[in-house]
């Protein structure tokens, strides 16, 4: 006769439960697959340019030629007007070389698209992480300590909130684009990617700090925090052991949304020539290159635009999936 087992399977933690919930979300998994594909493709930009397209996407090639169907074809071709005045870059070839055509400088659009993705994704990801760190610090400090600290930080955030995001970013970019950024003994050159990263992260801090502050204020009144204070636990330990783990879910949910907004901001700044500087490329600078070719070679501007749309849409879907997976109100259903 077998005895009934008294062992009880321990319940999974909140992060494990959230991961299982996220894995059941097909839309979120599809968005992760899209993002992974774009990231891997962008990382392979040097390999594509050197071994597949056999081109340098940063060197002008207006006098170059390529072989198409056994015939030598000029990269810059006469316009289709009756007098054949002016030159237009070659359009999509369907071959490995100049797959999406060339820009006004005779550079391979596909290769520049992949290189531009490296910079755009790096800037948006880094800006989102930096913004979360700054917003988390400000929100926790304002919500937990209260008093004068809360008043000063909240008023500072209100001032930054009152300025439109793109106007604020453009103003900072114009100031730093001429002479770079000087922080004490450190000098960041104007063409360094750290400048758009810092600017974009800074302008979105108020939007991320407010939800964190509200969450911390609610946690500050929780019983476990009150008990820790009564036991004489140091404030820094309460923040690290009790407040930060409960705020981390809010920060994780905001991550994809902040990255999407950072990508749009970077593209806008680069399109205005105050973001990524030549000879580097980003999706915004490629759209700027295609502005004058929108009627003759629209693919120059359409290709990076579609890449931006795909990444932003995937990030928003992933953010929705993370919000549903980490929503504490759904904890009982996940259990």
From TrEMBL:
This is Peptide ABC transporter permease. Belongs to the binding-protein-dependent transport system permease family. It is a multi-pass membrane protein. PROSITE patterns: ABC_TM1. GO terms for cellular component: plasma membrane. It comes from the Bacteria. The chain crosses the membrane at residues 27-49, 121-147, 159-181, 193-209, 243-263, 300-319. Residues 117-319 form the ABC transmembrane type-1 domain. GO terms for biological process: transmembrane transport. Keywords: Cell membrane, Membrane, Transmembrane, Transmembrane helix, Transport. It is found in: Cell membrane.
């Amino acid at each position: 006769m077998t005895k009934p087992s008294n062992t009880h399977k321990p319940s999974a933690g909140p992060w494990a439960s959230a991961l299982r919930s996220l894995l059941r979300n097909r839309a979120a998994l599809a968005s992760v697959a899209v993002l992974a594909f774009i990231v891997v493709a962008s990382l392979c930009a040097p390999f594509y340019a050197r071994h597949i397209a056999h081109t340098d996407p940063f060197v002008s090639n207006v006098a170059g030629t390529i072989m198409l169907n056994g015939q030598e074809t000029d990269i810059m071709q006469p316009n289709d007007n009756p007098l054949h005045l002016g030159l237009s870059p070659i359009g999509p070839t369907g071959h490995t070389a100049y797959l999406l055509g060339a820009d006004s400088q005779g550079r391979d659009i596909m290769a520049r698209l992949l290189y531009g993705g490296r910079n755009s994704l790096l800037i948006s990801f880094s800006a989102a992480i930096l913004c979360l760190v700054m917003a988390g610090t400000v929100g926790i400090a304002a919500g937990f300590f209260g008093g004068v600290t809360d008043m000063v930080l909240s008023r500072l955030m209100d001032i930054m909130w009152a300025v439109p995001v793109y106007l604020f970013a453009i103003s900072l970019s114009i100031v730093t684009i001429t002479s770079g950024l000087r922080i004490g003994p450190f000098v960041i050159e104007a063409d360094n990617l750290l400048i758009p990263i810092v600017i974009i992260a800074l302008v979105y801090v108020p939007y991320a700090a407010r939800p964190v502050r509200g969450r911390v204020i609610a946690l500050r009144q929780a019983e476990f925090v009150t008990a820790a204070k009564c036991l004489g636990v140091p404030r820094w330990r309460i923040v690290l052991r009790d407040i930060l783990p409960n705020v981390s879910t809010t920060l994780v949910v905001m991550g994809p949304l902040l990255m999407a907004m950072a990508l749009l901001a970077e593209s806008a700044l680069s399109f205005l020539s105050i973001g990524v500087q030549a000879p580097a490329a980003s999706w915004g600078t490629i759209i700027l290159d295609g502005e004058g070719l929108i009627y003759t070679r629209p693919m120059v501007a359409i290709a990076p635009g579609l890449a931006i749309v795909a990444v932003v849409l995937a990030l928003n879907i992933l953010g929705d999936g993370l919000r549903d997976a980490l929503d504490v109100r759904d904890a009982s259903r996940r259990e």
